[in-house]
Automatic annotation (TrEMBL):
UniProt similarity note: Belongs to the sodium:solute symporter (SSF) (TC 2.A.21) family.
Pfam families given in the database record: SSF (PF00474)
Species the sequence originates in: Trichoderma asperellum (strain ATCC 204424 / CBS 433.97 / NBRC 101777)
Source species, domain of life: Eukaryota
Compartment annotation: Membrane
Molecular function per GO: urea transmembrane transporter activity
Protein name in the entry: Urea active transporter
Cellular component, GO annotation: plasma membrane
Length: 663
């Protein structure tokens, strides 16, 4: 059995893989994936008419992404490197409850987003970003406030990813952490620059499939280790380790912070806008429920393997335990993987860390580029911007934010900020916009003043409570004190709930009565029509017919909205209330049989997730695959259809032509 090499004092753990392995994965594999995605983009343009020189294709994939690819992209959107490293970290710190609370802190709001997504499809079908919706309802001031809120969310999110991933890659290969931080976004910038959001969807699919296969490998390999041998054997090791910590506080932080990360992430809205209308709700529901198994299963297995094997010669740090810095830097999973599978385990963790971080960087980059092109450039610098102008600034945004994110993460690293600190405090900054944003989409009574004041006052409240609690509890305001559990709990709760209270109070003082139809008065999409005959049909369409078409589709959207609301409530109650809280309230102690069942269910769930993420997009997208095949073999020409539309037009026609709810 190969082991990490140790320094003479036994405290320093040398990487199990050479530096070259890190550079090969980050640079060579990164460029290879970028090349494949660029080639795929060219292939889709040639065979399926998907032209990324248009903003509708580049930013919203012609609003035609199917359920399977949407579900895979949703799983990938939350398959952060920090999701895997962080779930293992909290499992190590808090025991069996940690990974469960981590998973339960993600899936309910992903499913809830199905409701927001279909509401946006219903009320403003031409939107490209959340911020366009805010601007139309609240004007320039509200628009600027939300630009700031969303950019803060994206910056904190990407820094969290890069800090964790870079630390893990450095621990595994010895690659300089700053080199990893700057090189990780390079390949992402390349394929996102060329392929836009469709390339992001396709990369999400590929990365998610590979990651879930590797996770399933660990569900088998873990029990081939003689010291573990079975779930019952793992239980015996854990009883011996004897960990007992209250994880409920982390659960509160995590679910609120993740609500902020989802709702204030324009990338989630972009993927909802990109999905076909009939794919939004099932895609987000399936993706959210399937995702639950990944942090739950992986975090439980790897953290418990670390706890159980830490006192054996297999573990890299033996004979000492892991230090607080090693745990906070997310090294529990890399160390556990190496203890279980040697260098093969180290390579596996290197791959899944790389794929997870690049996939989510792509989503963040496309989100910020959409803000730069649509919400800043098009709105405040060139209202008459053409397709070409918007694409150019989208490209500028992709490059700029990719470089900025690396620089910002580097600054945090040299400020002694690590994965543990960002994982705990990010909710303070991401949560203030939750209620104001939900009210913007779902509550017509929220007033202009409430929308502007409540998130800003809420953020001030959250920061004050966070810093004040750190000083009151620990006597100082430092990175160490502000990263402790209780100040982060208090600050996150204040940031999340106070804006809701402020908004309701201010709105009730002078309520608005917004007309949802006003969202559809402003033209947002770019129109390109190749068929003069179709143009004639559009021009001759009567206003009465247009209203009838919209009303017909709106009724279908409303049904999907009720379905989404039901599943959002059911997922929250199941994952956060009915399942864990009775166990927490009764202080339930796991017996061996119950623990075995817990592990077996988690493993079965994660295998189902792998099958959904890997094969459902292929089955669901078989018609487009056939189209590509026919295009390559010359059996059918690209764009040779009756409609003559090169990209979707806008408004009512777009809904009517693309919203087929039957098949």
């Amino acid at each position: 059995m190969l082991h990490f090499e140790r320094a003479a004092n036994g405290n320093v753990v040398s990487p199990p893989l050479p530096q070259a392995a890190g550079y090969v994965v980050v640079i060579a594999v990164g460029f290879l994936i970028a090349f494949i995605m660029i080639f795929t983009t060219h292939l889709l343009k040639r065979t399926a008419g998907e032209d990324n020189r248009t903003t509708e294709m580049f930013m919203t994939a012609n609003r035609s992404v199917g359920t399977g690819l949407t579900a895979s992209a949703v799983i990938s959107s939350w398959l952060w490197s920090t999701a895997m490293l962080g779930s293992t970290l909290v499992g190590y710190n808090f025991g069996v409850a940690g990974p469960f609370w981590f998973a339960a802190g993600c899936s309910p709001m992903i499913v809830f987003f199905a409701l927001l997504g279909i509401a946006c499809k219903l009320r403003i079908p031409e939107a490209h970003t959340l911020l366009e919706i805010v601007r139309i309802r609240y004007g320039t001031t509200g628009h600027i406030v939300w630009i700031a809120l969303c950019l803060i969310n994206n910056i904190i999110a990407i820094a969290n990813m890069l800090l964790g991933a870079s630390a893990a890659i450095t621990a595994l290969t010895g690659m300089h952490i700053i080199a990893a931080t700057f090189l990780l976004p390079v390949g992402v910038i390349l394929y996102t620059f060329v392929g836009g959001i469709k390339a992001t969807f396709l990369t999400d699919y590929f990365h998610t499939f590979v990651i879930t296969i590797i996770i399933c490998f660990f569900t088998i390999k873990t029990f081939t280790v003689p010291e573990i041998s079975s779930p019952a054997g793992l239980f015996d090791l854990i009883v011996k380790a004897g960990q007992d910590h209250p994880a409920i506080f982390f659960g509160i932080i995590h679910i609120l912070a993740n609500f902020g990360l989802v709702i204030m992430d324009t990338g989630f809205f972009a993927k909802a806008f990109s999905a076909a209308p009939q794919a939004v709700v099932p895609g987000y529901i399936i993706g959210g429920i399937a995702y639950f198994a990944i942090p739950w299963c992986l975090g439980t297995l790897m953290s418990f393997s670390a706890l159980g094997l830490e006192n054996t010669a297999r573990f890299p740090t033996y004979p000492r335990r892991m230090t607080a810095d090693e745990v906070s830097n997310g090294l529990v999973m890399p160390y556990a993987a190496y203890a279980i599978a040697g260098k093969g385990g180290a390579v596996a963790v290197l791959l899944i860390t790389f794929m997870a971080v690049t996939s989510t960087i792509s989503a963040q980059v496309i989100s910020v580029s959409s803000i730069i092109s649509f919400d800043i450039y098009r709105q405040y610098f060139n209202k008459a911007a053409t397709d070409r102008d918007a694409i150019r600034w989208s490209h500028i945004g992709v490059v700029f934010f990719g470089l900025f994110s690396a620089a910002f993460s580097t600054a945090l690293y040299y400020g002694n900020v690590n994965l543990g600190w960002t994982l705990y405090m990010l909710g303070v900054l991401t949560c203030p916009g939750i209620f104001p944003t939900v009210f913007t989409i779902l509550w017509k009574r929220q007033s202009w003043a409430a929308a502007i004041i409540s998130p800003l006052l809420g953020m001030a409240t959250g920061i004050a409570v966070w810093l004040g609690s750190a000083h009151a509890l620990y006597g100082e305001i430092t990175v160490a004190s502000t990263g402790q559990t209780l100040p982060c709990v208090y600050g996150t709760v204040a940031s999340a709930f106070s804006p809701g209270l402020y908004s309701v109070v201010i709105s009730l003082a002078k309520p608005a009565n917004y007309d949802w139809a006003d969202f559809r008065k402003e033209k947002l999409s770019f129109t390109r029509i190749s068929s003069a005959k179709l143009q004639s049909r559009i021009d001759s369409k009567s206003p009465v017919a247009a209203v009838s078409d919209y009303t017909e589709d709106a009724a279908k959207f409303a049904k999907w909205g009720k379905f989404a609301a039901f599943w959002a409530a059911a997922t929250f109650l199941g994952h956060w209330v009915l399942w864990p809280l009775p166990m927490y309230g009764s202080r339930y102690i796991f017996g061996k049989e119950f623990f075995v069942a817990w592990i077996v269910i988690a493993i079965i769930w994660v295998w189902c997730t792998m099958l959904i993420a890997g094969f459902y997009p292929i089955i669901d997208g078989r018609k487009q695959l056939q189209l590509v095949y026919h295009g390559l073999t010359g059996k059918k020409k690209a764009n040779d259809d009756e409609s003559g539309i090169e990209t979707p037009t806008s408004g009512v026609l777009e809904i009517k032509e693309s919203s087929r709810f039957g098949n």
